[in-house]
Amino acid sequence: MYKIAIIGGGPAGYSAAFEAVRYGFSVLLFEMDMLGGTCLNRGCVPTKYLSHVAELYSNINESKRYGIGVEPTGLDYEKTVDESENIVSKLREDLTNNLLQSKITIVKGKAKLLDETHISCNGEVFEAEHIIIATGSKNTDKPFVHCINTDELLSLKHLPDKLIILGGGVSAVEFADIFSSLGTQVDIYIRGKRILRKWSKEIATSVSSVLKKNGVKIHTEADFADIDLTSATVLSVLGRKPNLEGVDEGLVSIADDGGIVVDEYYRTKTKNIFAVGDVIWHSSQLAHVAMEEAKQVVRFIAGETTKKSAVVQCIYTMPEVAVVGLSESEAKEAGIDYISSKQTMYSNARTVIGSTDRGFIKIIADKNTEKIIGAELMCERASDMVGELALAINNGITVSELEGSTRAHPTFYEAVTEALAKLIRN
């Protein structure tokens, strides 16, 4: 009998496996497709690679601003996609080798829960003391037959002349940013009144302005039935849903959103069966959150106390967006007497040197305790910079304590110091 069996080899699954090995547990890992899951193979990694290519391409187009006489010679998009596939393949190979070197047993095939301790796969039955369901999520059904989903978009070997995007969430705006930067005409259609409806209005408005500056047309309160879908490549980015394949619904409870119901320790109604990541109810559908949840489960099994962290969310547009903790509206709803400050990036030397994009850093603190409770960043390297603010929130650090930390000049980080100084003056 294995100590832990994990169904799913994506970020949650392999993170749980590596964490379990640290405790000396015997680990069995099932994966029916490719190790690394959606994130590595069809999501985060290839998308961020395309973001990198789009940024390079934009920099070439803007090189005259810096006195560099380089003219773009066009984009060999097929070569771009081939290189993306090479990078993903290399990372997947490294992941596989690391799992095997860690003495983790990998079983390739469709796993099915039989009962609280048994799993079947490839005609064989396996037994484990604890089971972790980490089967992730999958694309929702397409609204039209000839739409493509994000998996199919990333496999295209040609650059679309025109791209219609149905949906206004994070993936939608990232793809709009990427393809508009590469020269594709992009139209976003949403049923609501604004893109990024789950984000603060300020973030949504700022991202919308950047996209429009790049030529993206955003159609709000749209009726999809009225869209001419024959003149463009049509991408459906209308969300993802939990993947319950192989999950015996008699062993777990399913919520209204289709996810598995879990308690604060990620236990299902069958106490030795856990679920983490995109497959659980109210999931943030973020790889790094899934990875942390998986580690928390293993630590719980090992008898350690666990503590949840503030969730960091990022949008990889140009410039990047990153948020952590509470927004102003959330602080208000929670009845917190808060203060906030906003520092624009227009006077930041590093920003002026390398970009003409708009940007800001906003920090939110509890007025009574002076502890930092939230932050919103829209600037270059936002996804790297937000970690410091997440650490501050998780450890109850005050505005004065964080402001006292010296940040190098000239850096993007200086804007954090300036935002904190404004809070102190408040």
TrEMBL record:
Question: What positions does the domain FAD/NAD(P)-binding occupy?
Answer: 2-294
Annotated protein name in UniProt = NAD(P)/FAD-dependent oxidoreductase
Q: Does the keyword Repeat apply?
A: no
Alphabetical UniProt keywords: Disulfide bond, FAD, Flavoprotein, NAD, Oxidoreductase, Redox-active center
Give the top-rank taxon of the lineage listed in the UniProt record for this protein: Bacteria
The record's section on InterPro entries has: Class-I_Pyr_Nuc-Dis_Oxidored, FAD/NAD-bd_sf, FAD/NAD-binding_dom, FAD/NAD-linked_Rdtase_dimer_sf, Pyr_nucl-diS_OxRdtase_dimer, Pyr_OxRdtase_I_AS
Recorded hits in Gene3D superfamilies, A to Z, give:
3.30.390.30, FAD/NAD(P)-binding domain
